[in-house]
Fold this sequence. Notes:
Two copies of one chain form a homodimer.
Chain A: H1 3-24, H2 31-37, H3 42-48, H4 52-76, H5 81-97, H6 102-107, H7 116-143, H8 152-164, H9 166-169, H10 178-193
Helix pairs in contact in A: 1-4, 4-5, 4-7, 5-7, 5-10, 7-8
Amino acid sequence: MPRETLVDSRQEILRTAARLFQQRGYDATSMNDVAAALKLSKGGLYHYFQSKDEILFEIMNHAMDLTQERVIDPVRAVQGAEERLRALIRRHIEVVLSVRDREITVMLHENHHLAPALRKRINARKKEYVHFVEGLIADVQRARQSKASVSPRAAAFALLGMINWIYQWYKPEGALQAADLIPQFTELIFAGAFV
Amino acid sequence: MPRETLVDSRQEILRTAARLFQQRGYDATSMNDVAAALKLSKGGLYHYFQSKDEILFEIMNHAMDLTQERVIDPVRAVQGAEERLRALIRRHIEVVLSVRDREITVMLHENHHLAPALRKRINARKKEYVHFVEGLIADVQRARQSKASVSPRAAAFALLGMINWIYQWYKPEGALQAADLIPQFTELIFAGAFV
């Protein structure tokens, strides 16, 4: 099989598994269920993933890959501390609201059991992202000689909470859409953390 | 059995069940597991709750009761729009950080399967709380004749995200404690939403 097809198939499996895990619950979904939803034989599925644990880990890891590719890497290329932070807020909200990957990114924060070694790897990537956001906020505070008493760490957790919480209330047909949300959350953080 | 004992026992069951659901996963935990952890017979547990679904619903409902008793009711009694919002931020953070009830409140936001009628009741209570917070923020914006372009709705979701997300990163032994977090999150919202 050409490598492209393999990569596409893996992502397709992860998306389908993430959807099933959310519809039926992680524990209640079997490898058989995942294979059936994909019209794969059980052997066909095991060709890609050895276990449900591995699928869960790869879903979370893929969510962090998406964050790396669509948020961290492009943000690093932006000039200017303020513009970098604005780009981060916009891009992170876009990832969270992406219809295609919503189920993948939601899984990142659900409390399911992962072998300690795998959990550690995901937590290390999450921590790295928190530090990245914290650094951007510290840069803007310095650039603006801000008098805010909000520390970069507290502001980073606040920002990540605001954004990662969106999936709890967001409705595609609701009044509050990405186009309104991005400027409002950006203003809230800029006014709140850079007095 | 006197009523007090019944109420205490129910809460004890809910706390233990919530802890097990988080340690082992909701689907992977059986009514037998819950009974065993409480040193109850299966019949003894069914005396209180008919099913695991009912326990899950009652955990979520109890989390909303805690919000009502420890946040909404006392906040309503506070004089002055600003002081009411400050009290809400402080009290909600205290509920989220309460060691005794942490597992109960976390369950409120996990994505588990609940019969649609029960899910509806929980969602109605959550929605009522969002409206309460939104109303407080609108009151402060009016009182301050704020020029902020952040709508009370967006600010309410931002605030609830900041606070409800705390359980994802908070460590009792970490550098950021409730005593630091409350004033920083309060400043962030006050500066951010009431420019």
